[in-house]
Amino acid sequence: MKVLVLGGTRFFGKRLVTRAVESGWDVVVATRGHSFAQLPQGVHHVLVDRHDIQSMGQAFRDQTFDVVFDQVGYSPDDARLSCQLFRGNVGRYVFTSSASVYEPQMIPLKEEHFDPRTLAIRYGGQSELTYPEGKRLAEAVFFQQATFPVVAVRFPIVIGEDDYTGRFRFHVERIQQGKPIGIPGKAAKMSFISADEAGAFLHWLATSDLRGPVNAASHIPLSATEVMDIIAEEVGQPPVISTSTREGERSPYFISENWTLNLTKAVEHGYRFTNSKEWLPEVTRKCMT
């Protein structure tokens, strides 16, 4: 199997690439070269601007792939580029979308709570749109215009020791240092997934018959305070909670309305997700060392 990974040199993209190589696939990783990563032996690394049609065309116009994994598509312009470039040249397209396409609700969110097939398309680049707008409109372009099979993975917050956003490490370090973390109200629950499982799920999708939007998350949603309790147990001291809303003190995991995902679609297609309480302690320990 020949696969192309757009992005793939950091966070759960690295884990996807490692699994693909271990499966014996022919793997091409395309990046701008801005972040250095030691790619597994045998990976073909191509420098390209994923957001530029000329750059992408020069690199891939005459190539065919069984699967394309798009880790760095953020806008309808990016989606339109892929629909044009890979027409007739790809067997399956796996787009990393986001649970941010949904509005928070009390009930677990199902894929049909946002239908990209009915959204009016307007074009624009990443800098012209908010992150949720960009993902929604990118999905709309893929599902209304692509001539190849597409699956859009709606991940929630992804947690790992190498998370470049620093959101999880923020909690670990402040609990270790005895510094306050702002929880300015009753914390609602949200879904999470580990970076390891995010990479594993993408890898699984390469050979699955699943199509369309799909939620992917660990079982057992947690509130910000529940996440901190798990961290505190590993650190060995309780968190210091404040009601602060100041940037740099307020928890980046605090939300006031539930934002959890219904996993029925993926589970019915055969995937078995982990439990968030199983892997959070290990990630905490890795952040402490």
From TrEMBL:
Pathway: Carbohydrate metabolism; galactose metabolism. The keyword NAD applies. GO terms for biological process: galactose metabolic process. It holds the Pfam family Epimerase. Residues 3-208 form the NAD-dependent epimerase/dehydratase domain. The keyword RNA-binding does not apply. Its EC number is 5.1.3.2. GO terms for cellular component: cytosol. GO terms for molecular function: UDP-glucose 4-epimerase activity. Keywords: Carbohydrate metabolism, Galactose metabolism, Isomerase, NAD. InterPro entries: Epimerase_deHydtase (IPR001509), NAD(P)-bd_dom_sf (IPR036291). It catalyses: UDP-alpha-D-glucose = UDP-alpha-D-galactose. Belongs to the NAD(P)-dependent epimerase/dehydratase family. This is UDP-glucose 4-epimerase.
